[in-house]
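[Meeting: bench + compute handoff]

Bench side (C.D.) handed over the final construct sequence. Compute side (W.E.) agreed to return the predicted structure before the next meeting so the bench team could plan truncations. Sequence as handed over:
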Amino acid sequence: MMLPSSPKRPNLFLRIPLVLCGVGIFFLIAQYSRPSEEQVAHMRLQKSVKLFTERKGVAVDRTNRWAQDENAAALGELIFHDARFSSNGEVSCATCHDPARAFTDGAKVAVGVGTGTRNTPTVLGAARQRWQTWDGRADTLWSQAAEPMEAGVEMNFDRVSAVQLVRNDPTLLAAYEAAFGEMPLGLPPVEFAERARPLRLDAAADDLSAAWDALVPSRREAMDAVFSRIVKSLGAFQRTLDAKPSRFDHYAKAIVDRDIEGAKSLSESEARGWIVFHEVAKCDQCHSGTEFTDGEFHNLGLPGADGRLPDDRGRHGAIPKLKVDPFSSAGLFSDDVDGKQATLVRGLKSDPETWGQMRTPSLRNVGRTAPYMHDGRFASLEDVIQFYDTLEGAIALDHHREAVLRPLGLSATQKADLIAFLRSLDSVEPIAAK
């Protein structure tokens, strides 16, 4: 009887080469499947710019039922460029928001009938912002338009005169009626020439506010109804003033699409500047999103006059005004008083931390909107970058000071690249003067 033989074992010396061959193949595959440093860098770049290929259109403004009405926008455009809507007949909205200057004025602070204390922000792309003005005292385009017309240092006009001007001018009246229909009953007689406007919070009583108080309630209501439509027409027009795509937007799309020629939209310096902006200086902690702003309010510790503590209350002074403004999203003339924005306004609180806070401006068209900061203190982008690089002169404000700010310590090349990048955010399409 034969016993079954045990299976033969492969020769050990034959197995070793097979194992080594398998290991070699594994490492060979791993080597070729592992992305190179250049590929990793491109993937990071592609991820960082993808957001800018998804820029959406301007959101619907539910607080203004005429926001997208072409007739309302046409009236608003007429009024925007009409200097008769000022007490001296020399100042229009376009005086400070000059189309030839990317809808700014190039001045350190705004100069209208008087001289203001803040720099004029652009209205390009303003319809994309949740808050308006430096301190956010307006929360819609149309409510923002109401204050400058009646502010003493800006246009120093009044709503009674504005209504009478529209009613008595054939061109303006035709444009008004095309958008809103006939004016309501209860207005003063056509020949009525007395100026009057209501008293605003924190403003001193004067002859114009006294004249307003003397009007019978039905007449004030009729005036307010027409004036609210006038400013809503300005809001409708300003919605059309959007910030157009920049060379950086074209570059971002090219990177995502792996379009080598399109990626040449930016120079090497500008492309490096995006890396400095996004990864080195971390500017997008505040200048984030497709509009290069978080839309929020921050205190940079900028000193006041002669190095003193800043005396501009900023957001702290704006919130009380916003909460009682009849032209806000939560106000009497809003067309969406129960909407999200209105609810947000009602819940605002003017805490001590809001003292001196200013809204983060969009960086789109920043190369065309000098000077910079809320008081126009920096004449050039070079000055702005130098401040952030050293924070020299900034005042420590304890817990009121913006915690994310640290001196950047950039090299000369990094500063030059960063400035080059910022200039690439200007719209490609020219801005035509009206």
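W.E. noted at the follow-up: The chain has two domains: 51-58+245-423, 70-239. C.D. will use this when planning the next construct.
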